[in-house]
Specification:
- It holds the Pfam family DUF8168_N.
- InterPro entries: DUF8168_C, DUF8168_N.
- A hairpin with a 2-residue loop joins strand 3 and strand 4.
- The protein folds into 2 domains: 97 residues, no CATH class; 132 residues.
- The chain is of the alpha+beta class.
- Strands 2-3-4-1-5-6 form a 6-stranded antiparallel β-sheet, with helices on one face.
- The longest helix is centred in the N-terminal third of the chain and has 23 residues.
- The chain is elongated and about 60 Å long.
Length: 238
């Protein structure tokens, strides 16, 4: 089958890196195998992927990002550098694929397409004011991380919700109460059910304990939609 060619960039570009390596891989969720040849020249990245599987480009994009980012993490450990990696484009002539990746999560972009950004941002800025705002800011940071790190989406989604539970406890004078009481109050304010929270927690628990867990783009979409529903419900209630 025609190989897939991915392009990207190592960030920040001012910290130049040149590196070449090849690896075999097995997709955690599906078990599909392939090989990736990675070439990084002055932070410009080209990755050739050979596999007999007919991949969805977003799932394979996540595989490529993990391969490169994992090697950058090893470089970071050895050198004390904090590199990041962005995949920008994929080509496969045999399948007539030539796609430039955006920064959006399509299901969330569609979900929030009618939002007035200026008005919504002003409202959030007001809610994050004061000493308890740190919990909301942690929530938003974790939600951003859930979008950036495909394999850890559930981990960040649930931790974002836990930050909201702490916020809820703080504003309602329940910081010293037990977790059961705090979660009950959180569900009351957010309007979410215990079952929804449990489903997100079940997806997150293996990752929270250092286990490796894969998933598909469809799995991530369900997590995103459930988590954003919980967060939206809570923000409407505070």
């Amino acid at each position: 089958m025609e190989p897939y060619l991915f392009y990207g960039v190592v960030l920040p570009e001012r910290a130049q890196l040149t590196l070449q390596f090849s690896v075999g891989f097995s997709h955690i969720a599906s078990g599909v195998e392939g090989t990736a040849k990675v070439s990084i020249i002055l932070n410009q990245v080209a990755v050739t992927v050979e596999s007999e599987h007919k991949w969805g480009i977003f799932d394979l994009r996540n595989v490529v990002k993990n391969i490169v980012q994992n090697h950058l993490a090893m470089v970071g450990y050895l050198m004390g550098y904090a590199y990041d990696f962005e995949v920008t484009r994929v080509l496969n002539q045999g399948r007539e694929i030539d796609y430039v990746f955006g920064i959006d999560i399509p299901c969330l972009t569609e979900r929030n397409k009618k939002i007035d950004l200026g008005v919504a941002l002003a409202s959030l800025r007001e809610k994050t004011a004061g000493e308890n705002g740190v919990f909301l800011n942690r929530c938003f940071s974790d939600l951003a991380s859930s979008m950036k790190h495909a394999d850890d989406t559930a981990f960040y989604c649930y931790r974002a919700i836990e930050s909201l539970r702490h916020h809820c406890a703080a504003v309602h004078g329940l910081s010293d109460a037990n977790k059961t009481t705090q979660w009950e109050k959180f569900r009351q304010v957010s309007g979410c059910t215990e079952e929804v929270l449990r489903q997100i927690k079940v997806a997150a628990d293996p990752l929270r304990h250092g286990e490796v867990l894969g998933g598909s783009s469809e799995d991530r979409e369900k997590l995103f939609m459930a988590t954003w529903d919980v967060v939206d419900g809570y923000l409407r209630g505070v």
